[in-house]
Amino acid sequence: MGFFKKQFLDAIQWLDESSNTLVYMFPMEDQEIQSGAQLTVRPGQVAIFVDQGQIADVFGPGMYELTTANLPLLADLKHWSFGFKSPFKSDVYFLNMKEFLDNKWGTNNPIWIPDSQYGQVQVRAHGTYAFKIENPVVFFTQVAGTKSRYTLENIREQLRSFIINKFADIIGSLNVTVVQLASNYIEIGEALQDAVAESFKALGLTLTHFTISNIGLPEEIEKTLKDVTSMNMLGSIQNEKLSKIQILKQLDIMEQATKNPGMNSMTQSGMGLGMGMQMAKSFADNMNQMNNVGAQNGTPQQQAQATPQGAMITCKACGHSIPQGSKFCPECGAKVEAPTGKKFCSQCGNEVASGAKFCPQCGNKVS
After folding, report:
1. Is 32 among the domain residues?
2. Which of 66, 272, 297, 317 would staple 334 via disulfide (CB 3.0–4.6 Å)?
């Protein structure tokens, strides 16, 4: 003659072998929890005791011997005034508190966003996010309920809708054009994460990480942007080529100019390379500068020819030819006496006798 022996639980724990379970209900069936049973809550877990639909107790990571002292709320619900000796039944749920990484989000269909240039534009977007349970009691009561197992697949669509519903609003609030979208992924992602965080919090969750991988534009707009980019690149290349050609031409002119004996003296004085670079930037100004320097480095007769309108006189102390009107001779420093009614040839500076019509030295007509 056989008989049925009632089973009692003396160890309650959850060994999570999955990677997508948020809530796991410990299988009770007809088993009952006996006084002194061992509860093990591993790191990253929380255990919730539920009695007749009410949350009785919440246990964080650790090992517990189930007694009246460890189950004060449950003791009140069951009216254990003096502790419990007999087994009892209560539902035990384990919640996974770890961070769930690399969750994908994306638009199933194109969504409309405002744009200052095109008005309204349809775009597609996708990326990743991470989250974890922040408030186990809120998540259990608001989301998981009495399901024996609650996984990522049960909540993923709801979280994705939070993101998509905020996406168009965030793009509009940032006032970025479709052309600027690709260069503002980080700013858009941060703003979107802040906007979605409140919706996650209402479910007892926290959004720990959020990224935008891509925002796809309509094909015709992408083609237009590519064409504009190509034209800009081509224009930049052509401008660079023209600039190089112009510099080469200027350097060639300089090379030809330095073959001139008057200008070659400057190159020999160490000005060649520096003058070449300067001429590539401002060739015309340097040509004038070189002509002036050449005139200054010439002979006294060349200097007189460079300034034909300035009459020259001879220093009585050293015989050096100096411009008329000089007070001192630049060669010997002697004081130059002011002319007293004397005439000088404007061509060679030789003193001409009063009344003479031509210079006896060079034959120049004397005015």
Report:
1. yes
2. 317
The total of structural domains in the chain comes to: 3
Please state the separation of Cα 98 from the chain's center in Å. 33
CB atoms within 10 A of CB 12: 21
Residue type, 1: M
Tens digits of per-residue pLDDT, 298-327?
444 444 444 444 577 888 788 888 887 777
Do 108 and 56 fall within a single domain?
no
Structural domain of 27: 8-96
Q: Are residues 206 and 112 in the same domain?
A: yes
**Which SS3 state, helix, strand or coil, does residue 305 take?**
helix
Count CB-CB contacts under 10 A for residue 330: 10
pTM: 0.57
Q: Tell me the pLDDT tens digit for each residue of 128-145.
A: 999 999 999 999 999 988
Q: What are the distances in angstroms from CA 38 to CA 10, 63, 141, 190, 322? A: 6, 7, 25, 45, 119
Is the same domain home to 39 and 113? no
Of the three residues 195, 222, 249, the one that is the final residue of a domain is 222
